[in-house]
Amino acid sequence: MKLNTLKIAALAVIVSTAPALAGEFGNASVRNCTWCHGPSAQGYVPAPRLAGQRAQYIEHQLKSFARRKRDNPFSRMYMWYAAANLTPRAARNLASYFSSLHPEAANDGDGTLVGLGRTIYQRGLPQSNIPACVACHGPSAQGVREIPRLGGLSYTYLKSRLAQWSEGYDAGARFPMPHVASKLSAHQVAALASYLSFMK
Amino acid sequence: MTRVTPTKPLPATRRSGATAPCREAGGRRTKRGVNWHLALPLAVAAAAFLAAGSARSDAHSSIQAKIRYCEDCHGPQAQGFRGYYPIPRLAGQQPQYLKNQLRAFINRSRPNPIMSNVAHVLRPGMIDAIVGYFHRLNPRPIGGEPKRLVAAGKSIFENGVPQDNVAACAACHGPHATGRGEIPRLAGQLYPYVVKELTNFPKERGQNPVIHGPSFIMLPVAHSLTRSQIKAVAAYVSSLR
Fold this sequence. Notes:
The complex is a heterodimer of chains A (about 200) and B (about 240). With about 200 residues, chain A is mostly helical. Chain A contains ten helices and no strands.
């Protein structure tokens, strides 16, 4: 009898936390994201890695999807709808959850281009008016506040993102990325994306 | 035996397109009637004039491109930007101060790998145009400083810290922190940037024993200010328009 009471009590405690857990993310769950972004949120082509990303950056992007500002093709096809019903509170909680996960480097860049990528990232190309990414994104591409972590993101994702700004997508993006990216040649974009994809 | 007699030389014939000299009044060489002695220098002068014109507009557009490049990091209208590193406001800054800093980046009296690279590629002819442009900008301060420290900062700015031999900032930087000559404007500068500079002043600005940077005079001041005084005065100046 006592054991049964104990079991019921334990069950009651566990069950009582379930609504709280569900309420944390609102009507969304982490699973809705990991369908595409990978079971450990490390990314799954073409969805980028979310693990270890800056929470404020994820939040801003979710808001941008919900408002349909970020309009590159995959955003338009998937993220507009994925983010449409997120409450701000849910977005913030999801963002802080994913930022707490450990990121793995994609390591899928072109090894021969890493040297040029490193030069552009750490020193820029002042003669070509290309700023050093390190000034905003940090020495290990870790980002800060609303500026995203780039280190270890996948080569194809970084390449397409940099190209999209020159193509006129996501024109509502915060200063200065559209202007900066528009100065990069395709070769420089590939070099940067390669360098970053290997970064821990 | 046939006697071969030298024949009279044939008169010079004028083939079309020939440049054979033609004896005209004054003995000038001509081709199709054009006076090359006059026309050639004129043509060269005209070409030089046109080239200078397009070089001027090339230089102008390359200065414009360079300014936009500065603003990529220093913010729209050079208001400053909080990247991973705090990137300072250039808007309204004293031109002589900016020129001194650019020189200091080049000769490494102010160590900064990113700005050394940038300063190296600025042609001397561009620098006056660029610093003059930034001096005339006046956007709102970027803000974000802790407001509760502003009052204490104002007191330090206007009165100094006499017991620590710290002069009033206003004495050199001006009552409104606008600076003068080679003394920089502080009004509206980024809070984290001012904190960083004052806290790390020897490392940032004056440690090179061979080349004293232009900011050498600030070393004793930065040394004497405590951390909380630095934060207070930084909060105050960053709130000024």
